[in-house]
């Protein structure tokens, strides 16, 4: 299926200029804000602002990038902008790039340019909500029309919340019942655009390179294989849809997290995150495939089901104050997590001593992406499974390194996987040994991302510390020297985590979720005392292993 086309021609034009403010929605297809900006305008200013909040180099960060975004995501964004600029040029326009605090830059442009319409895609992220309020207030006071349609999601989260009496639905099934079948018409794709107007004194930039932004890429043997942009998004979509049987039979839990040469998913998540691909267009394409096959899977496991999970998390995030925190978040269990920066660093830097976990974290650092079940494994390991480190710490690392990092979905998944919200079966823990072995008994995924273990026999590849010294020597990998010993013993650590989660759940139930800082401190002290009583020696040994 091709995006619909419309012939917008010069004879349709009247009136003054429009400013199209791109943030996400970096596409021409199904872009109602861009269509509206072009309709009836003598000129259109397609604007993107390089925001230092996300893009400014942080020389002190633990990996190349800014404070909030790793270099893979910044590169993906720049590729997406370059592709958008190319698409706009084909329509007789171009992308205008400026640098600075977005609302200040936008207001300066509204002052400088002949603009009667301000158009931008509605965004539910708190950061953009604040920016948008400033922009709307200024535009309204200046007599400028504001058009901000919902097109990053299939449904309007505010509508779903209103249907539910002002509260977000807290389960996927209740969300589906409230949402029903979506009713939308895809925006027409423009075949022509009004020209860019006079930019006055504004210093317009080209889409910058990483080097021009101050980034120096360090040499590494492997980079993310995923290139940004609408053109690549539509190509990947066509490729996925061409295998109708695969689309019809897709079941999320059955994917292979160790498949890296040809990932077991569409890998469209980064394109949805930046709006290079319209979720509405993707949804309609999937529905068209379903119409032409005898049977297909259904939500929550189908591909349509995955899009609806995205809608669910967007809705809950939009309607939940402090969604990205434990404190002040009414839907989040209050748990006294460990504050152990050494364990966190071992997890982040792929030094846990568990090859399955470490290989995933290397893939995250190099590619900025990994399979959702791989994400589940490492998130469970960091939080309720083994290390008992706060989910917010892991969330921050994912937020920075993932190319598809999405505020609502990232926070929602960490709440889920840490059993802080949505999912409460904390006794079900992903094994850092057997879970990966089930999919990849030979350990090819580990051998690729952890080449130090490439010659380790498959009997020991998931537990190299159990290999006899003679085997380690032959494999040229001595555990404790060439590859770390485990930072914790999984069986012991997971049992301790279960006990802690049980006590934390009991406290939340007893206090009806109103757990104060003092209660959390008391429970934290009890956890520490129990550890000291039971196994002081292994605890000291753990600290020694991760130094």
UniProtKB/TrEMBL annotation:
It comes from the Eukaryota. Keywords: FAD, Flavoprotein. Belongs to the DNA photolyase class-1 family. Pfam families: DNA_photolyase, FAD_binding_7. The keyword Flavoprotein applies. SUPFAM superfamilies: Cryptochrome/photolyase FAD-binding domain (SSF48173), Cryptochrome/photolyase, N-terminal domain (SSF52425). Its cofactor is FAD. This is (6-4)DNA photolyase isoform X1. One of its GO terms (molecular function) is deoxyribodipyrimidine photo-lyase activity. One of its GO terms (biological process) is circadian regulation of gene expression. Binds 1 FAD per subunit. FAD binds at residues 265-269, 306-313, 404-406. InterPro entries: Crypto/Photolyase_FAD-like_sf, Crypto/Photolyase_N_sf, Cryptochr/Photolyase_FAD-bd, Cryptochrome/DNA_photolyase_1, DNA_photolyase_N, Rossmann-like_a/b/a_fold. Gene3D superfamilies: 1.25.40.80, DNA Cyclobutane Dipyrimidine Photolyase, subunit A, domain 3, HUPs. The record marks 337, 391, 414 as: Electron transfer via tryptophanyl radical. GO terms for cellular component: cytoplasm; nucleus. Residues 526-547 are annotated as: Disordered. Residues 16-154 form the Photolyase/cryptochrome alpha/beta domain.
